[in-house]
């Protein structure tokens, strides 16, 4: 159909409509003189009624949306936010949430009639978000203001005041060490060591020094590993020095004892071949010379520092201490340990599903008062061997963990949990996976580069309400 034909068709339709309209007005008895006025009145009247009905429908839908009582719960800055709510999508369309982009959140339709406000809020403030939607064609968009507030992240409320470097017995606020042990050609892969220590938030808040310490050593001559961790008592003004002296003394003493000790090595082999009482006693006697004397040497070294200063007492250097010596033989690993104080030391093996606690922590069911290396009675305890020393032989293991209570308390909560393999499995999972809510990555213990130390130090920054002590962990893996 060409343009001329289309115009003709339209004129024909208009003429037909005029005829119908004229016939209707004739039937209604509308005089010819009033017909134009009548038409104007009728159109205006119907248009007004049409608009009123459309507006009333819009108001009814708006009231239904308002009566849903939509409220967005408050969130926390830097924490994942997710809130689902329903809307009558059979009556409304083009739903959007104006202002959500300013909060770090976004609106998403997750199902028919179901929406979700999600994301990670970035700012501490109160927002008024506008829910905008369409109801009836031809009507302007409807709006509903919905307030939402985001509270500060508790982590952001803590200060991190650097320790004054002029303070007596200053030590850096964090420390890390990684020891890679090269494997000999044709031999089984050797294990590596990593240790990190981070000043706790309670100390950082006041600019106080880190009290924890650690020590690592691999004896190249004899292939023995030495790991030690110490937690200086928060109530002792120079405990940071006490923990340092304890770790350094133990490492130096054990290294000297293990550098060339064929009698001890032969006793271990004899005990592995025949675990008789005689052989066990022989190994234990030699271990006492190394472990007990190592702890005693540390005690005496702290005492010497205290005695050199008339203004301090030995209790001013109070510290816990745990350490282990380990070596791989052709029959497996020999591991021996000494432990005084709280924290945790555990031999964890994911392959066999075992977690062997290498000592008994000095505390009750929940974290509380502990005992310290600086106490003289520690070395006069008749049960010191049974209570504080352990030795074991295993084919292999996943990791040997030593940690202060700044790590063990938030991770395990009770001493009973320290003896539960599933809790250690859970801990290993947290170490591997990190803490996504805090933006903290996990640590890959199979990694054989120094990056594992940086990763582990970052991992120590995990958030745990009420647990803000110094955190130190050493791992043989």
Structure write-up:
It is elongated and about 130 Å long. It contains eleven helices and 18 strands. It folds into two domains: 75-150, Immunoglobulin-like (Sandwich); 157-476, 4-Layer Sandwich (Phosphatase 2c, domain 1), CATH 3.60.40.10. 34% of the residues lie in helices and 25% in strands. The chain has helices at 3-28, 35-66, 201-204, 239-258, 262-273, 277-307, 384-388, 405-412, 415-418, 421-433, 451-459, and strands at residues 75-76, 81-86, 93-98, 105-111, 114-119, 125-134, 142-151, 174-179, 193-198, 212-219, 224-231, 321-329, 332-340, 344-349, 354-357, 389-394, 399-403, 471-476. It is of the alpha+beta class and 477 residues long.
Main sheet, how many strands, which sense, barrel?
A: 6 strands, antiparallel
Tell me the CATH architecture of the largest domain.
4-Layer Sandwich
Question: What's the end-to-end separation, in Å?
Answer: 86 Å
Structural class: alpha+beta
Provide mean pLDDT, rounded.
91
Share of helical residues: 25-40%
Q: What would the CATH topology of the largest domain be? A: Phosphatase 2c, domain 1
CATH superfamily heading of the largest domain: PPM-type phosphatase domain
Gyration radius, rounded = 38 Å
Uncertain segments are: none
List the helices and strands and how they pair.
Elements: H1 3-28, H2 35-66, E1 75-76, E2 81-86, E3 93-98, E4 105-111, E5 114-119, E6 125-134, E7 142-151, E8 174-179, E9 193-198, H3 201-204, E10 212-219, E11 224-231, H4 239-258, H5 262-273, H6 277-307, E12 321-329, E13 332-340, E14 344-349, E15 354-357, H7 384-388, E16 389-394, E17 399-403, H8 405-412, H9 415-418, H10 421-433, H11 451-459, E18 471-476
Parallel strand pairs: 1-7
Antiparallel strand pairs: 2-5, 3-6, 4-5, 6-7, 8-9, 9-18, 10-11, 11-12, 12-13, 13-16, 14-15, 14-17, 17-18
Helix pairs in contact: 4-6, 5-6
């Amino acid at each position: 159909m060409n343009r001329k034909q289309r115009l003709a068709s339209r004129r024909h339709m208009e003429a037909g409509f005029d005829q119908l309209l004229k016939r209707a007005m004739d039937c209604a008895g509308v005089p010819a003189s009033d017909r134009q006025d009548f038409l104007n009145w009728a159109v205006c009247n119907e248009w007004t009624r049409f608009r009123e009905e459309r507006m009333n429908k819009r108001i009814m839908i708006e009231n239904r949306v308002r009566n849903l009582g939509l409220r967005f719960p408050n969130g926390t800055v830097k924490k994942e936010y997710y809130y689902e709510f329903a809307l009558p999508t059979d009556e409304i369309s083009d739903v959007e949430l104006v202002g959500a982009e300013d909060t770090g959140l976004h609106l998403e339709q997750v199902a028919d009639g179901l929406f979700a406000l999600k994301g990670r809020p970035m700012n501490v403030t109160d927002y008024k978000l506008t829910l905008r939607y369409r109801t009836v064609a031809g009507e302007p968009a409807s709006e509903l203001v919905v307030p939402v507030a985001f509270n500060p992240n508790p982590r952001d409320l803590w200060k991190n005041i650097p320790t004054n470097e002029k303070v007596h017995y200053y030590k850096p606020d964090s420390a890390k060490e990684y020891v890679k042990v090269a494997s000999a050609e044709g031999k089984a892969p050797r294990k590596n060591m990593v240790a990190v220590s981070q000043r706790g938030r309670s100390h950082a808040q006041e600019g106080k020094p880190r009290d924890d310490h650690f020590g690592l050593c691999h004896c190249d001559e004899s292939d023995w590993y030495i790991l030690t961790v110490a937690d200086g008592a928060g109530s002792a003004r120079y405990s940071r020095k006490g923990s340092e002296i304890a770790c350094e003394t133990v490492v130096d003493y054990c290294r000297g004892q293990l550098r060339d000790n064929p009698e001890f090595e032969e006793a271990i082999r004899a005990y592995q071949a025949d675990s008789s009482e005689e052989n066990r006693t022989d190994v234990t006697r030699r271990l006492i010379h190394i472990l007990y004397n190592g702890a005693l040497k540390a005690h005496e070294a702290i005492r010497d520092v205290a005695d050199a200063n008339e203004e301090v007492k030995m209790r001013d250097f109070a510290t816990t201490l745990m350490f282990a010596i380990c070596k791989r033989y052709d029959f497996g690993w020999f591991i021996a340990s000494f432990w005084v104080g709280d924290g945790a030391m555990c031999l964890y093996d994911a392959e066999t599903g075992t977690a062997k606690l290498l000592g008994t922590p000095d505390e009750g069911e929940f974290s509380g008062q502990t005992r310290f290396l600086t106490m003289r009675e520690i070395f006069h305890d008749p049960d010191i061997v049974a209570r504080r020393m352990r030795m074991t032989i295993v084919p292999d293991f996943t990791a040997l963990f030593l940690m202060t209570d700044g790590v063990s308390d938030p991770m395990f909560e009770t001493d009973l949990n320290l003896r539960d393999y599933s809790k250690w499995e859970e801990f290993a999972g947290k170490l591997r996976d990190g803490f996504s809510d805090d933006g903290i990555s996990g640590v890959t213990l199979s990694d054989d580069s120094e990056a594992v130390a940086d990763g582990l130090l970052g991992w120590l920054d995990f958030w745990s309400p009420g647990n803000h002590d110094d955190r130190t962990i050493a791992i043989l893996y």
